[in-house]
Amino acid sequence: MPPATPELISPRSPRVSAARRLAKRNFRGKERLFLAEGPQAVREAAGHLAQGAATLVELFATLEAAERYADIVGAARDAGARVHLAAEQVIADISTTVTPQGLVGVCRFLDTPFEQVLAARPRLVALLANVRDPGNAGTVLRCADAAGAEAVVLTDASVDVYNPKAVRASVGSLFHLPVAVGVPVERAVEGLRAAGVRVLAADGAGDRDLDDELDKGTMGGPTAWVFGNEAWGLPEETRALTDAVVRVPIHGKAESLNLATAAAVCLYASARAQRAAGGCRSVTGN
């Protein structure tokens, strides 16, 4: 294995300072770079291409982490990333977690133009409208990936998907499927419907029941689920844009489901219905 660049002793190193600034949204947007922390995220970033270029451009690793995850460090070098052996204090200074795992990658933005998402004729999409919590956004992205969705779309009023907390919550799924960002909700719904996708709003006050929709066999076609804000859900004007407003039935005494749990239920319901209808590729084949 070729040697890494010299250990970066000082947290005041220009490269360390540049990486640390990526914790702030305005710097991420300006540089079109974001941080991926931990072995899982760095492994996925090292093997990912966006617009024909390697996503991972730089990797900071403690000596212990470089030895423990030698395969990831090797993959980073193979991807053309510059690898720095860094003191633990340097990693702690860059990282946004309380207990860093010794690996922090600097990655290029990888969002996909919304028109490209539509051109692919997706059959299952998660649309996040006014979702503000980065942990929820990342978790919904992970659920969409697990359910076999072809894309996730975040509206212009939603959280930055490159927020470190969102990246961590996605557990690598950010690198697995197309993500379109900054799309006005009206444009998103209109574009998906024009592409032949049925647009459903997930709302606890919906007039249609998810179980009933499954029993009636209406869930087998291309579907986009719209998920709203954690605190106040979807506004009436957004619900009015969709083809139907569907509630997840509560069979017990729970007052409601949180956003990520409701998203998982809805996305898996569609995935199962689509496979049963023979209209969607197997999730296990993704």
Write a concise synopsis of the structure shown.
This protein is an alpha/beta fold.
Task: Report how far apart the termini are.
Answer: 32 Å
Rg from alpha-carbon coordinates: 20 Å
Any low-confidence stretches, pLDDT <50, length ≥5? 279-286
**Quantity of strands, as a count:** 14
Overall structural class, as computed from helix and strand content, comes to alpha/beta
Total DSSP helices: 13
Biggest sheet, strands in spatial order?
A: 10-9-8-13-11-14-12
Beta strand %: 15-25%
Main sheet characteristics: 7 strands, parallel
CA-based shape: elongated
**Helix residue percentage:** 25-40%
What is the element string, with H for helices and E for strands? EHHEHEEEHHEHEHEHEHEHEEHEHEH
Write the layout of secondary structure elements.
Layout lengths: L4 E4 L5 H7 L4 H7 L1 E5 L1 H8 L2 E2 L2 E2 L1 E6 L1 H6 L1 H9 L3 E5 L1 H7 L8 E6 L5 H6 L4 E5 L5 H14 L3 E5 L8 H7 L8 E5 L1 H10 L3 E5 L5 E2 H7 L6 E5 L8 H6 L2 E4 L11 H18 L10
Parallel strand pairs: 1-6, 5-6, 8-9, 8-13, 9-10, 11-13, 11-14, 12-14
Antiparallel strand pairs: 2-7, 3-4, 5-7
Question: Would you write up a description of this structure?
Answer:
This protein is α/β, with parallel strands linked by helices and 286 residues long. The protein contains 13 helices and 14 strands. Strands 10-9-8-13-11-14-12 form a seven-stranded parallel beta sheet. The protein has a five-stranded mixed beta sheet with strand order 1-6-5-7-2. Strands 3-4 form a two-stranded antiparallel ribbon. Strand 3 and strand 4 (53-54) form a beta hairpin. Helix 8 (134-147) runs parallel beside helix 9 (164-170). It starts with a strand and ends in a 10-residue tail after the last helix.
